[in-house]
Amino acid sequence: MVELQQGTGKREPDAGFFPPAGPRTIEVTHVSKWYGDVVAVADVTFAVGPGVTGLLGPNGAGKSTILKMLAGLIAPSIGTIRVLDQPVRANPALYRRIGLVPEQETIYPFLTGREFVRLNAVLQHLPDPDDATTRAIARVDMLAAADRAIGGYSKGMRQRIKIAAALVHEPELLILDEPLTGTDPLQRLQLIRLIRELGAEGRTVIVSSHVLHEVERLADQILVLVNGKLAAAGDYRAIRDKMDEHARRVRVRAADPRRFAAALIQLPTLESVHIDGDALVVETNDVRSFYRAVPKIARDQGIRLYEVTALDDSLASVFAYVTAR
After folding, report:
1. Does domain 2-241 have CATH number 1.10.15.40?
2. SS3 breakdown of the chain: % helix, strand, coil, rounded to 5?
3. Which SS3 state, helix, strand or coil, does residue 87 take?
4. What is the CATH number of domain 248-312?
């Protein structure tokens, strides 16, 4: 496992992942889950604190299994899970502090959006279910469609009303399984903003996805599952910086790209450089020293520098790296 303790640079390949400081909302310790001969999750250990954490991996990696165990819907085959410092399985009092948005369409098409959210408010025994329902629906920007039947909603609208139902009782922990699936660009932007706001309020939000660039905009911390195992954890940029044995691709735009390429080729850390229109695409095995050298070379050569952008500083590059290991 690629593992980075934020702020320390300490790598511990076999210890699981734990946030460096502060409260731990979720603690998963040596958890495995199998169904007959099929192992869905294998010896996973991590802890998650307040804020937004992305749970990443391809379909079949074990993400939904992890989330179902965190919600108490299924028990691990071995290992322990504690949420808000309590055992999660068969703990109804704890469930009142958790909001769950499953990937499956767990809705009643004949109910209106308002009725569906209010049902969850009633099940949570809220003192004023009508007020709580209105506030939750407003938070996901669905008041205009609240009195229409859910059966007539688009996929994105159904996702938002499910999130409203999960938020109606103001949970401390919110578990979202692929919440952006089926949303249009505007809805996606609104949900990303909402999820970040929830994390900023001090809630713990864990979001699963296989769409890496979306979670990159959502989460400060990531957990990457591959074949049921925790393959990477921590801040994705810090993890990517740890991959210094692999070349990094950087796009450079300058006033005279050919002359600038001739100057850059002298750098000992350069692996390759080629011209792409008015830009250079460079591969370097030491991106930090490359970033330091580029402005100096531009100044010495009298070449105006317009842009220096990493092409693989993203969750996609992290995911490609850990899945190849």
Report:
1. no
2. 35, 30, 35
3. strand
4. 3.30.70.100
* pLDDT tens digits, 179-238: 988 788 788 888 899 999 999 999 999 999 877 777 778 888 889 898 899 988 888 777
Please, are residues 63 and 211 in contact by the beta-carbon 8 Å criterion? no
Contacting residues for 222 by C-beta, under 8 A, at least 6 apart: 53, 54, 55, 56, 215, 232, 233, 234, 235, 236, 239, 315, 318
The CA–CA distances, whole Å, from 48 to 135, 306, 315 equal 28, 40, 19
Which two tokens mark 71?
């919600």
Residues 6+ apart with CB under 8 A from 66: 28, 31, 41, 44, 55, 208, 225
Q: 271 phi and psi, to 5 degrees?
A: -95, -40
Q: Do domains 2-241 and 248-312 have the same CATH topology?
A: no
Distance CA 41, CA 65 (A): 7
List pLDDT tens digits, range 249-306. 899 999 999 999 999 999 998 999 999 888 999 999 888 789 889 999 999 999 999 9
For residue 273, give both structure tokens.
Answer: 């450089």
Nearest of 216, 196, 210 to residue 314 by alpha carbon = 216
How many of the other CB atoms lie within 10 Å of CB of 268?
9
Where along the chain do its domains lie? 2-241, 248-312
Count of other CB atoms within 10 angstroms of residue 143: 13
d(Cα 283, Cα 271) in Å, to the nearest integer?
5
Provide DSSP, 98-157: EEEE-SS----TTSBHHHHHHHHHHHTT-S-HHHHHHHHHHHTT-GGGTTSBGGG--HHH
